[in-house]
Design goal:
Rossmann fold, single chain
Length: 103
């Protein structure tokens, strides 16, 4: 059963998520984040959040992982400047899901 939620990013950005029960995974570079996405996609995670600055560096890995039903992978903004990558991906996912741009 898919019932776990994980957050991938640098330690300072993801540590607060631990207090609300999410599992946190420290990844300070694109290679570490890609390896975690590949590993965690095979486990029972329903949702994986990834910091948008890391997500922007590994779009092919995320695209491949999104071919599976679970986990849902979503880029989230952190205190670092992400350039709007996370919001653009959410907009694209919503448009794909409902067939219209509502954002």
């Amino acid at each position: 059963m898919y019932n776990r939620v994980g957050v991938i990013g640098d330690k300072d950005a993801v540590l607060a998520f631990k207090s609300v029960g999410f599992e946190v995974f420290d990844a300070s570079d694109a290679q570490g984040a890609a390896a975690l996405i590949k590993k965690l996609s095979g486990e029972d995670f329903a949702v994986l959040f990834i910091s948008e600055e890391l997500a922007a560096q590994i779009p092919d890995v995320i695209k491949k992982a999104k071919q599976r039903i679970y986990p849902v992978i979503t880029a989230i903004p952190t205190s670092k400047e992400g350039g709007g990558y996370g919001m653009a991906q959410i907009k694209k996912d919503v448009e794909k899901a409902i067939g219209a741009d509502i954002i």
